[in-house]
Amino acid sequence: MLKVIAIDDEYIALERLKRVLNKIDYIELIDTFTEPERALEFFKNTKEKIDLVFLDIEMPRINGLELAEKIIDQYIGTDIVFLTAYDQYALEAFRVHAISYLLKPIDVEEMNKQLNHIYRKKQMAKEDIQNRKIFIQGFGGFLCKSQDGKMIKWRTKKAEELVALLIHYQGEKVSRGMILDRLWPEKTRKNASSNLYTTCYYVRKELEKNGVEHFLVRDKESYYIDIEENQVDFIDFSKKINLIQEKTIQALLQLANTYKGQYLKDMAYEWGAPRAIWFENEYTSLQFEIAKRYIEDGDFIKASKTMKKLIEYHPLCEKAYKKLIEILIGLNEQEEIKKYYEDYVNLLENEFETVVSEEMKKNVKSALRGGLFA
Q: What's the CA gap between 121 and 63, in Å, rounded?
């Protein structure tokens, strides 16, 4: 069944439409309204999932185009069919992403044809949906996948950035003004607002295709991502990292594997830079904790592998080089001591404009029996 409401300030036209809709077996007419404000109140209070709104364009106080923007912006999965006696509104109707446009007086045969098409399309979409989860990867870049592994491809770069920005705030509400400032700082408020409306529409349509109906949410003048039923790697990491002292080595390794690289790598979002530094520091501390546990257990080989992995992800981590060299000295791995010591010296000279300590020189010289300094 398609759950439908109809909004038209002309009572006679509304009654005529009601009679036609009540004769169609796959249509459930939930309610009708002659006042746009009453329709908005209905949307705010109802628990019904409305599939379709028949909407007159020329109405007092709030015209149909303005009302359609409010409905589409706030209620994902609700489509608009415009009804009007004036065909000059056609382009404007499709600008606000209406899926159909019917001229008054309504041709019943044409309306049945369009409704049947809409119904079949929605039924096919429902049959294709096997789950309603998506998975977000923020480490090593930004990726969104459906539960069956299908990559979600956002229609525009701004659509992708909007999702990334809202996910960045981990379910907290983000004001409309902040979004406009972050995504369209060079635009006027009017143009930025129009871009946000269109971008939200693109995001919701892509989510709807993947069976996700309640993800991008608008609450008055704020937006947020409902992540309760979705998996986000960096949110999982954030929740667990503060409890590392209480976790087993296996749990720590599993947590470390969550980190696939720099947060939002190569995305060039300025607003993400401070969080990227925080994640990198926390990941560094986690790897040192893992190495410490291995050393306590006498497993210096696994401790050395842990530091090598940290260097691979964070090649400018001086502490990691220093710790790895100490571990390799204990293992008497001379070739590896030489390699990582040379890398460490180059790092200090080229990146930090300093030199290795005399203590480190002495320890390495002793381990290499003079070979490196002969």
A: 28
The conformation of residue 246, written as its DSSP 8-state character, comes to: G
- Burial, 304: exposed, middle or buried (Cβ in 10 Å; 0-12, 13-18, 19+)? buried
The whole-angstrom separation of Cα 304 and Cα 297 is 13
120, 91 contact by CB (below 8 A): no
- The position carrying tokens 């185009």 is 65
What is the model's pLDDT at position 110?
Answer: 84
Biggest CA–CA distance in the chain, Å, is: 102
CA distances to 7, 360, 369 from 355, in Å: 76, 10, 21
Amino acid 131: pLDDT = 45
Of 84, 118, 85, nearest in space to 99 by CA: 118
Q: Which domains does the chain have, with CATH numbers?
A: 2-128 (3.40.50.2300), 131-285 (1.10.10.10)
Q: Tokens 């015209």 sit at which residue?
A: 63
* Chain position carrying tokens 């038209």: 8
Q: Which residues pair with 31 in a beta bridge?
A: 5
| pLDDT tens track for 242-296 | 888 878 999 999 999 999 999 999 998 999 999 999 999 999 999 999 999 999 9
Quick one: which of 287, 69, 348, 329 has its CA closest to 194? 69
Which residues face 22 on adjacent strands? none
pLDDT in tens, 59-105: 888 888 888 888 877 776 788 888 877 666 555 655 666 677 788 88
Hey, what amino acid is at 100?
S
Q: Is the Cα torsion angle 365, 371, 373, 374 positive or negative in sign?
A: positive
Mention every residue, 6+ apart, whose C-beta is less than 8 A from residue 100.
Answer: 80, 81, 82, 114, 118
Instruction: Write the single-letter amino acid at 268.
Output: A
Give the H or E element holding residue 232. Answer: strand 231-232
Label the pairing between strands 134-137 and 143-146.
Answer: antiparallel
Sheet holding 216-219, edge to edge: 174-175, 222-225, 216-219
pLDDT bucket at 124, cuts 50 / 70 / 90: low
Q: How many residues does the chain have?
A: 374
